[in-house]
Every structure is written in structure tokens, then in C-alpha cells.
Amino acid sequence: MKIENPNPLQWHFSKRSQQLKSSAIREILKITMRPEITSFAGGLPSPATFPVEQMKAAFDKVLSLQGKIALQYGPTDGYGPLREWVANSLSTSDGKILPEQVLMVSGSQQGLDLLGKVMIDEGSKVLVETPSYLGALQAFSVYGPEFVSLPSDEQGLIPSGVDTLGKDARLLYSLPNFQNPTGRTLPLERRLALVEACARNGLPLIEDDPYGALSYRNDPLPKMLNMNPGGVIYMGSFSKVLTPGIRLGYVVAPTPLIAKMEQAKQATDLHTAQLTQMVVYEAIKDGFLDQHIPTIRKLYADQCQAMLDALQTYFPAAASWTRPEGGMFIWVTLPDHIDTGELLKEAVEQHVAFVPGAPFYANAPQKNTLRLSFVTVPPEKIRVGIERLGKLIASKL
Ligand SMILES: Cc1ncc(COP(=O)(O)O)c(C=O)c1O
């Protein structure tokens, strides 16, 4: 018997699905994967930093000694010893973080989605930086918020905006360390002011921090989580310090919120893979990250410097850019009349790519901006790629 189906596009999709859009970056990445293109577009960590041998040994040990547990379903809140490790690693002399405050998630991207699910209603106000992480805008958009863009400058968001704009908001989403997309870092006094302003307004403060460990200097600024554990929702990730392919991150928050997010996670995927969590715990429990992270910082610091030097040499004076102190990104601002979406088409013809800045804005996109990632391109290719881009920009002035 042959059954004829109607065109699936006539099926009735949910209203929510209409809010779903492909990330502009993923679309661009498809083009820029071509081998002849020098791509500064990706947001991927350098594969040179992936500790393949350490992971192989950890998989082997976990499967040999605890295989029956590792291959079984596990608890929704996560693998106990790993939650404890996370809690200890985030505790300071002033404030202890407890394992009950930690929810293991399948990448911090899942943490953003779960948070949206339990905290955002249609029309809820969500305060964001200008610009902000595209993946968070994408995750929250599904729940129909009204994004309110907080005034921000080269040091990050300006806390005084919170008292006026944050009154009846649900969340404030912040990226204090080596922000994606700009690479900027929120100074200490602004962190304190932001934590105080959010507490004053009863506004939950999200601190999304996947790059915090990748400081090129050895003096990371204090986390806002430790300034006010009762008012901050902290997101961490193993993607940039170990490997993104294992999809493992964590949320640290007051226990009533963790309990709600745990229910949402149960409905989503029951739990994050027990095998992965046990392997990561095995790989890091004896201090591996203390030796590994400095090697990532050194590599990225050198490549960042190579790009800053090339920008200085080859970009016209009319362009300006950030000078990150850690992380993976540099943000460039061009004269107002240059639309970087259009510029990208010509850049790709010349075998160099970047991400146009507009999709990183929740409101009023600044089309003359772009993001450059330096971590997957070796210094000599960085120089050549930036030279080509500099010439292209100069031809538009
Ligand atoms: C700011 C920010 N938050 C969250 C994520 C998601 O990371 P994960 O791999 O842990 O899901 C990324 C990934 O690039 C990011 O840049």
C-alpha cells in the first residue's frame, strides 16, 4: 500500500516555533568552512587545546572501573562528585557555594534555555547588554520576552541604567569577562554597583562566564556570584577549558531556582549524560585544569597579540577595536556608512570572513560593527587575513 502524505509544511507548527530563527552565525559558518577561506568568524575554541590523551585515559578508567554506573541513567541535578567539585571551585574565603546550589547541564546553552523556560513569560522584560551574546538572545526569544538594551560602553554595561530600566524586569543577563562578542571586561567597581543595583530592585542577575578562566593575566576579577550568592545566577562551562564536544556546563543559583530548573530539565532530557560527567570528573579531579588552562591562555594571548598588531598595521585610522585581556574575541567598529553585512560578501570573495555585528544587538543594531575571533587561526594567517580585510575597508572610505 502506498500512503500519500500532504506536504509537511502545511502542518500546523506551534506559535513558539515561529519565534525560532537559525543563528546568523551558523549560517555564515557554513560558507566560511571552505578551506580556502581564512575565517575569523567562528566562535569555536582551538582544537589544539583539546586534551585528547587525558580524556581517552579518563574514559578508559571510568568504563573499566565504574562502567555499570556510568552507562546507567543518572540523577537530574547531576553527578554528585562533579557538583561538589564545581561548588568547591567557586567557593571563596568569604562565601561557600554548596553542591545543592549547582545544577549540571548539557552545555551552559541549555542552562540559558531552562532559565528562560522557568522565568520568562510572553512580554517579560529581560535586560541585556549592548551588544550581547547571540545564543542567549536566541534561547530567551523562544519565550517571547521584551528585550531592553542597557546602555553599555567599552567597559561593558553601565549599572546606573538598572534603577530606571530594571524596575519591573524579570532578569538581567550579563557577561562580565571577555564578553562574547566584544571581548570587553566589566571593571570591579561596576560589578559591585551592578550587584547592588540588582539587589535593590529585586532583579535576578545572570552572570554568564564561559571565558572567565581564560584571562591572559593572572589576576581574574572577583565573580559577582561571590559578591551576592543569593541574588546571582551563575553559568559556567567546560567548553572553553576542556572541550565543547562533551556538552557540559553548570548553573549555580539559590536552591529554590535550582529546584525549578531541575524540574524543567527533567522534562527536557532527564539528565546530562552520566558517562560524560564521570569522565570529566575523572579527568579534572586531581588538578589537571591547573596545568592545562595556562597553556590555553598562552596560546590565545599570543594569537590575540598577533591580531592586535596586524590591526594596528593594516586597518585604516577610521576603524577602532577592543583590546581584550582574555577570551577569544575582538570587536571592531567601522565608520557609520559601512554595513558589515554587505562588506562580508566582498570579504568572502577575497577569502576572509568575520561575523557582522548586527545580530548581537537585541534592539537598534549597529551595522558598522563586526566580531573577529583569533583562536583558530595561526599568527601568519592572521596577518595575511587582516591585511586583506584592512585593504577592503580602506577601499570603502
Ligand atoms: C557567552 C556564552 N555563553 C554560553 C555559551 C554556550 O556554551 P556551552 O558550550 O557551554 O553551551 C557560549 C558559547 O560560545 C558563549 O559564548
- Radius of gyration, CA atoms, in whole angstroms: 22 Å
Distance between the termini: 66 Å
Order of helices and strands: HEHHEHEHEEEHEHEHEEHHHEEHEEEH
How many DSSP-defined strands?
15
| Structural classification | alpha/beta
Q: What portion of the residues fall into strands of 2 or more residues?
A: 5-15%
Poorly predicted regions are none
Number of helices, counting only DSSP H or I runs of 4 residues or more: 13
Describe this structure in words.
With 397 residues, the protein is an alpha/beta fold. It is built from 13 helices and 15 strands. The protein has helices spanning 24-32, 52-70, 80-90, 108-119, 134-141, 161-165, 188-200, 224-227, 255-269, 274-284, 288-314, 340-349, 379-394, and strands at 38-39, 102-105, 125-128, 146-149, 152-153, 156-157, 171-174, 205-208, 232-237, 249-252, 320-321, 329-333, 352-353, 355-356, 369-373. The strands form four sheets. The protein has a seven-stranded mixed sheet, with helices on both faces. Strand 3, helix 5 (134-141) and strand 4 (146-149) form a beta-alpha-beta unit. The chain is globular. The relative contact order is 0.16. The mean pLDDT is 95. Pyridoxal-5'-phosphate (PLP) binds at residues 43, 107-109, 133, 135, 175, 180, 208, 210, 237, 239, 244, 249.
